[in-house]
């Protein structure tokens, strides 16, 4: 074995026959190329900085339902909505998916599972499912942690309590201050 082999991250399939994988109790860990995520998740962030680390395991739950438990993470650049500076962030998700042939059955799933649709060949698209999880985990407004944000202390403190309608006017904070 040489060093190249040790560092070479394992690629994993995009689609799976979840039932067969559950019967074999298959576990995978590896990476997805970031290019697979660029059309949807890539549009929701400034840029994608890393490939996607994924680990999944296929199994049955106590009710003999096929379940796919896993986690994934990705590094992205997002823009702080408070100070407008771009910064790097790791988005990590944990998921519990259950494959369904008919979306109408989604209502019957226990709440801890997310439905994932099975295509006509009996396969699920794991990239698509993980991309959904990433999109759902993005906050509506990305922001730095307060202690690293670059908005000056005064604006930051007052800016937090101002209603949204004042956001568009950069002088709204000053006019608020003058009233006092
Ligand atoms: Zn900031």
Automatic annotation (TrEMBL):
UniProt keyword annotations, A-Z: Ribosome biogenesis
GO cellular component terms given for this protein: cytosol
Name this protein carries in UniProt: Large ribosomal RNA subunit accumulation protein YceD
InterPro entries on file: YceD, YceD_bac
Highest taxon of source: Bacteria
Function: Plays a role in synthesis, processing and/or stability of 23S rRNA.
Keyword Metal-binding: no
Family: Belongs to the DUF177 domain family.
GO BP annotations, alphabetical order: ribosome biogenesis
């Amino acid at each position: 074995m040489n060093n190249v082999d040790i560092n070479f991250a394992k690629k994993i399939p995009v689609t799976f026959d979840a039932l067969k994988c559950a019967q074999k109790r298959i576990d995978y860990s590896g990476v997805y190329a970031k290019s697979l995520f660029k059309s949807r998740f890539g549009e929701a962030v400034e840029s994608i900085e890393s490939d996607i680390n994924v680990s999944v395991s296929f199994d049955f739950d106590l009710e003999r339902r096929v379940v796919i438990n896993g986690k994934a993470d990705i590094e992205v650049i997002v823009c702080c909505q408070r100070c407008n500076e771009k910064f790097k962030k790791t988005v990590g998700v944990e998921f519990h998916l259950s494959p369904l042939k008919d979306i109408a059955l989604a209502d019957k799933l226990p709440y801890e599972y997310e439905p994932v649709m099975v295509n006509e060949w009996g396969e699920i698209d794991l990239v698509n499912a993980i991309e959904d999880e990433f999109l759902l985990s993005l906050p509506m407004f990305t922001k730095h942690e307060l202690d690293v944000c670059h908005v000056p202390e005064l604006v930051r403190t007052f800016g937090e309590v101002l209603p949204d309608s004042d956001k568009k006017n950069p002088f709204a904070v000053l006019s608020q201050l003058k009233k006092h």
